[in-house]
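in:
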């Protein structure tokens, strides 16, 4: 199967169903209750040290922010602690956005949480001063070029895009393989990974779910698509720590260190 075998609509529908199946697992137990409690407190933020430093280095005061692939909006809401206005979040899963509405109510905020296929957005969303994309968004996108064109269309003149994502090198490895430190996939793989398990952030096996499609992209593809959308690349940093599921922690701190995540910033011209 290649990127061309499925239409964008088919991919979106399949991945939406997979996320809708996953959502209930994230709204139960002590971690969810702790998140609700934290959202109600001043200075609420779920960002790690890397993002906290990057966001703190920018003057986001009064900037209208949108997060693409916002999940339950915990990161979108966290932007308020840096002075930004969490204006909107876009995600394909209505169930996760329902969680976001509960978190927003606890935080005393009211962002527009929009359930939509990013490739087929409703009209009238508006433009924003700051756009955020974090882990686990780019690999759900079968067409990076069109994706970044849409991202750029949401940016006001002078707006900043910040992407904090898993490094494409990590797509070469499978932490559950018999030899997890040996590359199991080509860095230049073009066909999507087909998954049937329910995915969560806790590293636990929750059994089979619906079929979803995960698209590997090289760092060159990501940077090129960003630039081709008319955005100016301001910086690209690579880091050796993991920002994804716990099972990937085994790749940290080794003598043969590999890049595990990256932070890309870009600006739309005035």
């Amino acid at each position: 199967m290649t990127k061309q075998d499925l239409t964008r609509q088919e991919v979106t529908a399949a991945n939406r169903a997979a996320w809708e199946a996953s959502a209930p697992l994230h709204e139960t137990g002590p971690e969810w209750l702790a998140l609700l409690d934290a959202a109600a407190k001043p200075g609420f933020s779920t960002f790690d040290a890397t993002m906290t430093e990057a966001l703190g280095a920018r003057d986001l005061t009064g900037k209208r922010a949108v997060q693409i692939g916002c999940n339950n909006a915990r990161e979108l809401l966290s932007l308020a602690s840096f002075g930004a206005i969490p204006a909107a979040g876009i995600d394909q899963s209505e169930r996760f956005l329902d969680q976001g509405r509960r978190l927003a109510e606890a935080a005393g905020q009211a962002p527009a949480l929009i359930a939509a296929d990013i490739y087929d957005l409703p009209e009238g969303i508006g433009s924003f001063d700051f756009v955020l994309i974090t882990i686990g968004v780019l690999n759900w996108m079968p067409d990076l070029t069109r994706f970044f064109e849409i991202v750029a269309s949401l940016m006001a003149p002078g707006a900043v895009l910040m992407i904090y994502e898993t490094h494409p090198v990590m797509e070469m490895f499978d932490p559950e393989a018999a030899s997890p430190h040996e590359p199991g996939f080509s860095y230049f793989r073009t066909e999507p990974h087909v998954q049937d398990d329910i995915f969560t952030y806790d590293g636990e096996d929750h059994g089979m779910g619906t079929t979803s499609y995960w698209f590997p992209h090289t760092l060159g593809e990501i940077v090129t698509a960003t630039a081709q959308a008319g955005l100016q690349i301001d910086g690209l940093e690579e880091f050796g720590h993991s920002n994804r599921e716990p099972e990937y922690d085994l790749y940290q701190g080794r003598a043969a260190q590999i890049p595990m995540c990256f932070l890309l910033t870009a600006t739309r011209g005035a």
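note: The CA atoms of residues 79 and 241 lie 22 Å apart.
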